[in-house]
C-alpha cells in the first residue's frame, strides 16, 4: 500500500484524477482517516490510486479467469441440468453450456479482483489507524516518563516535544505525533494551543488525546507541567497494566479455541476416520488432509494471528548515536588496528559469535540436516506414493532435529542474557543513584559498583567504567552499554537517561527516574511472561493428551482390530474391512510429530511473543513424539 506520493500515485491521478475530484465532498471522512493514519496523500490522489489498482487487479483477474475458463472447457465435465427449453435452444445450450459457465467464471473472477482492490483500499487506513493506536498506547507510559524527566530538569515544553520527536526509532508513533506538533509550531507558525488542539483531533489514541487535553488545561491555567507529567506517567502505567490484563484474558480464550479447533478437533476426526476405515467406509484423502493440511496450516495461521495482535515489539532496536565521536581519520593506523581487533574478537571466536547471532548456526546446522535428507533420497529413490514417505520420514524428522536444535540452544542463551540485563539494570541505576546521592562522584560510584558487583551485569559495568577511564562521557558510555545489549526496554531507558543528563545537572534525580522507568518496564514484562507461561503449559498438556491417545490407539486399538478382521471369513463380518496396522501407525506418528512441531510454534508465540522462542518447544515435542513412536511401538 501507499504511505506517501510517488510516481505511481501521480500516474493514477493523471488518469483518474478528474473522476476522483467529481465526488470530493464524499471523501471528508477519508481525508480525516488519512491524516490519522499519517498517509501523506490527498484524498483525491488516494481515490485515483484505488481506481488504478482496482483496474489492474481486474485485468489480472480477467487473465486468471480466461485460464480457468480454458481449463473448464477442456478438462471439466459440466453436468447436464434438467432444463425445459424448446428443442433448438436446448441443442444450443447442450452444445455451448461449457462456454457459458466458463464465461460466467471468468466474469466473476474479474469482478472479484476489481472489488478486492476497492475493498483493500477502503480498509487500509483503518488498519493503519488501529496499528498506530496500539503502538501509541503501548509506548505512551515510557514517552511520558521521558517528558517528565526532561521537565524535571527544567526544559521547556516545546523543547521537550522536539526531544521526543527526535527519537522516532525509540518511541515510534508517539514521536511522529509530537513531530507533527513541532512542525505546526515552527514551520506553519501556529501557536502551541492550536497545534495541540489539531493534534487532539487527528491522533487515533484516546490516551494521547487525554494527555494533550490535560496539558492544554495546565498550560492555560499556569499549572505545574512537571507535576502533571509525573501524575500522567503513573496513570498510563496503570492503564497499560489493565490493558495487558485484558489482552491476557483474551489470550486465554484463544488458547481454549486452539485446543478445541486444532488439537481435540483433528484428534476426533482421526479417530472417526479410523473407525470408518474398519467399517470399510474410510477416506484416506480425508485422513491425509487432517494430518498434512489442517494441523500444520491451521496451527501456523493461528500462531500468525496471535503474533499480529500481540502488543510486543519484535526485532532489534536501533543503535543510539553517540554524542561525541572521535575523528579516526586523524589516526588511520589506530583505526586499522581497532577494526582488526574487533574482527578477531567477534568473528574468530565462534561461541561468542553464536551467542550474539544465534541464526549464524543455521549456516552449519541446515547443511548438516540436508545431508540426512539427501541420504534419505539415496536410500529410498522417490516414487509418488505415501509408502515412499513412510520410508523417507525418519531421515526428514532427524534432519529437522539437527537443523533446529543448535539454533534453539543459542537463541535461548542469548535471550536469557538479555533478560538478565533487563532485570538487573534498574538495580544498577538505583545503586548508582544512592552512591551519587551520598556525595560520591559518578565515575567513582561506577568504579565502586564494578568492583563489588557479583551479578551477571558485572562485565557490562566494568566496560562502562573502562569507557569512563578513557575519558568518554557518561552519556556515551551508557549509550555504548545500551548498544551492546540492544533490547527495546533498555534502549528506551538509556535514551531517557542520556537526554535527561544533557538537560540537567541533577544526576541523582535523573538516575532515580530512569531506574523507575526501567523497573516499570521490567514489571510489565515479568507480569506478561508470567501469565503467558500458563498458556505454554496448557499447550504442552494438550499435546501430551493428543500423543497419549494416538499412542494408545496405535498400540492397543489397532492391534485388536487387525487381529479381529484377520480372523473373519473372506469379505469380513457385518461389513468390517481388513486394515493395514503398519499404515495407520505411520500415519499416527506423523500426526503426533506434525502436532508437536506446530504446537511448539504456537506455544512460543503465546508464551513469549515470537516464533524463534517456539522453536525450542517444537524441537522438544518433535523429538518426544518421534522417539516414542520409533522406539516404543
Automatic annotation (TrEMBL):
GO terms for cellular component: plasma membrane. InterPro entries: ArlJ-like, T2SS_GspF_dom, T2SS_GspF_sf. Residues 146-272, 428-553 form the Type II secretion system protein GspF domain. It is a multi-pass membrane protein. It is found in: Cell membrane. The chain crosses the membrane at residues 51-78, 99-120, 258-279, 285-306, 360-383, 395-413, 532-553, 587-607, 614-632. The keyword Membrane applies. The keyword Membrane applies. Coiled coil: none annotated. PANTHER family: INTEGRAL MEMBRANE PROTEIN-RELATED (PTHR35402), TYPE II SECRETION SYSTEM PROTEIN GSPF DOMAIN-CONTAINING PROTEIN (PTHR35402:SF1). This is Type II secretion system F domain protein.
